[in-house]
Each structure stands twice: as structure tokens, then as C-alpha cells.
Design brief:
Strand content: 25-35%
Shape: globular
CATH architecture of the largest domain: Ribbon
Largest sheet: 10 strands, mixed
Radius of gyration: 19 Å
Helix content: 10-25%
Number of helices: 6
Order of helices and strands: HHHHHEEEHEEEEEEE
Distance between the termini: 44 Å
Structural class: alpha+beta
CATH topology of the largest domain: Umud Fragment, subunit A
Number of domains: 2
């Protein structure tokens, strides 16, 4: 994929013109240089910069899809990291313990930022029946903007949770558990808090071994 093709892809996705000034900011180069390289093939590093800046998936778009079942990308598995669906989990070990291969087609269908995605695990019952304790959670760290009704991995007061988030304009977020026995609560993003709140990433997929 060259730069002109990348601009066309971004323009189609966002339905607005992407300028060379935007590209220059994403690549951390001058606008003149961005214009000079418009016909050149983009390196993986440049594609990753565009993905991160625009929160998109050009890296995946640039990968040829095939029917070969071995045509996969490896997603790191953090076997010791749990996202609570109850009262919170403090994470002590974020070491990659394995890699889970998924097809490039699935990664593209999920719109994954493959270089910013990881698999962690659910713990507790507050998101039942949607997510059960022990389920695998595929978290895309490149997707942090809150869209109503989607499920995210969040850090609250130093502990990880898997929760459904609802944005309440202009500056509040409702944190929702699918299990009705757990109460929802609001966080005011403008208010000075004595605890931290951070969206770690959107949970794009979850799954479990059949019981």
C-alpha cells in the first residue's frame, strides 16, 4: 500500500478528506515530505503509525488475505492477567505466557489493531450471562474511545474490570454490569478523584471452552 492508497482508504472509512497535513502529523514528518512520498510503498512502521494516529487497521488491510489456514497473526496471551467482573483484580504479572494465532481474515473482520491487541481472562460473574468467569477476552488497546453499549477493559483504582460503558455527555461515563445483582455507577471525568480511571481497550471478542 502506498500513501495515496492509504489516504483513499482513510477518506472512505471516515467519510471526510484526509489531508497531507493530517498524514504528516501521523508520521511525524513535514507536509512537504509527506507529499513527496505519496507514491512510495509504506513500511510496516509507517502503517503502524497511521493505525495508531487514526485508530484504524491499515496494517491488516495491507496484509494479503488467503484461504490458507496457517495464514495467521499471533496475538500475545497474558495468562496471569485477569479482568474482574466483580470486585476488581490487581495485576501483578503482565508477562506474555503464550501466543494465540488467529486468521488474518478474522483479524480484519474484527478491525483489530493487531500490534496493540492482547488476550487476557475474565474473573467473576458481574458480566454474566454475556461473559462468564474464565472466558478469554481479546482486548484491542488501540480502541479507547467510548461508544455506548460496548464492553471495555478498564482500570479503576489500580484494578482491572470488564464492563459495559455508556457515555453520558458531556463528561460522565456510566459503568454497567450485565448481571443485575451488581449496581451501575457513574464516573465524572472532570471531577478530581482520589482514584484512577482508564480505558485500557475495547474487548472485541470473548470465548470459552464448552462445558
Amino acid at each position: 500500500m502506498n500513501l495515496q492508497e492509504a489516504i483513499a482508504e482513510l477518506t472512505a472509512k471516515f467519510k471526510k478528506k484526509i489531508s497531507y497535513a493530517d498524514i504528516a502529523a501521523a508520521l511525524d514528518v513535514t507536509r512537504q515530505y509527506a507529499n513527496q512520498i505519496k507514491d512510495r510503498e509504506l513500511s510496516d512502521e509507517q502503517l503502524q503509525k497511521l493505525d495508531k494516529y487514526f485508530n484504524t487497521d491499515l496494517t491488516i488491510v495491507n496484509l494479503p488475505l488467503s484461504t490458507d489456514p496457517n495464514d495467521c497473526v499471533n496475538i500475545p496471551v497474558l495468562g496471569e492477567v485477569k479482568a474482574s467482573m466483580g470486585f476488581g483484580v490487581t495485576v501483578y504479572n503482565e508477562v506474555t505466557t503464550a501466543y494465540y494465532p488467529i486468521s488474518r481474515k478474522l483479524a480484519a473482520d474484527l478491525g483489530l489493531n493487531v500490534h496493540e491487541s492482547e488476550i487476557i481472562f475474565a474473573q467473576g460473574d458481574s458480566m454474566m450471562p454475556t461473559i462468564d468467569g474464565g472466558d478469554s477476552l481479546l482486548v484491542d488497546h488501540g480502541r479507547k474511545e467510548i461508544y455506548d453499549g460496548k464492553i471495555y477493559c478498564v482500570r479503576i483504582d489500580g484494578q482491572l474490570y470488564a464492563k459495559r460503558l455508556q457515555k453520558i455527555p458531556p463528561d460522565r461515563v456510566l459503568v454497567v454490569s450485565d448481571n443485575p445483582k451488581y449496581r451501575s455507577f457513574e464516573i465524572d471525568l472532570t471531577e478530581k478523584r482520589d482514584y484512577d480511571f482508564e480505558v485500557i481497550g475495547e474487548i472485541r471478542w470473548w470465548g470459552r471452552v464448552a462445558r
